[in-house]
């Protein structure tokens, strides 16, 4: 565990999610941390890029790989505001990321809906429910505004 708290880094991921919200994207944000340093950030850009794979986690992973010059990041932790989907879980598996920390559960598209077992690398630890109320509220507000 780093010197900074899970809540601290989840707040940074929430800042990314708010960027997505302002861009009229589903408000999911992610940050990747190594040794108490944020090495990558991302937020959903599916509409902007017209790319169904442009999820916050994928944007952050690509940035982290480029930053480090490596395709594996076993010493990193991903903080993401929403439970990763199966696609993002697969990308996280291949990255060999050390830890995944997420806020709100996603009962519709989260990895728990399609996986009986953890889809992550065997050495990856998973923590859920960090700032989950705030993460979930941002999603609720976004979709409520979309239905107006």
- Low confidence ranges: none
Tally of alpha and pi helices: 5
By DSSP, the count of extended strands is 5
Largest sheet: 5 strands, mixed
User: What integer value in Å does the Rg equal?
Assistant: 14 Å
What is the mean pLDDT?
94
Distance separating the two termini: 42 Å
The strand line-up of the biggest sheet is 2-1-3-4-5
- Helix content class: 25-40%
Q: Give the helix/strand class.
A: alpha/beta
- Strand residues, percent: 15-25%
Label the overall shape: globular
Reading the helices and strands in chain order gives: HEEHHEHEEH
Question: What this model shows, in words?
Answer:
This protein is of the alpha/beta class and 148 residues long. Helices cover 40% and strands 19% of the residues. It has a five-stranded mixed β-sheet with strand order 2-1-3-4-5. α1 packs parallel to α5. The longest helix has 17 residues, at 6-22.
Provide a compact summary of the structure.
Helices cover 40% and strands 19% of the residues.
Core attributes:
148 residues, 5 helices, globular, alpha/beta, single chain
Write the layout of secondary structure elements.
Layout: H1 6-22, E1 29-34, E2 37-43, H2 46-49, H3 56-68, E3 77-82, H4 86-95, E4 99-104, E5 125-127, H5 132-146
Parallel strand pairs: 3-4, 4-5
Antiparallel strand pairs: 1-2, 1-3
């Amino acid at each position: 565990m780093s010197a900074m708290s899970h809540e601290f880094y989840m707040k940074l991921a929430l800042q990314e999610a708010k960027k997505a919200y302002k861009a009229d994207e589903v408000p999911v944000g992610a940050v990747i941390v190594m040794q108490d340093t944020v090495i990558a950030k991302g937020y959903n850009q599916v509409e902007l890029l017209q790319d169904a794979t442009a999820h916050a986690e994928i944007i952050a992973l690509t940035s982290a790989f480029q930053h480090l010059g490596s395709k594996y990041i076993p010493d990193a932790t991903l903080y993401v505001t929403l439970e990763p989907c199966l696609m993002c879980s697969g990308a996280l598996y291949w990255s060999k990321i050390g830890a995944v920390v997420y806020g709100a559960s996603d009962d519709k598209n989260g990895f728990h809906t399609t996986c009986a077992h953890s889809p992550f690398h065997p050495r990856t630890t998973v923590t859920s429910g960090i700032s989950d109320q705030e993460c979930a509220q941002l999603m609720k507000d976004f979709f409520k505004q979309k239905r107006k």
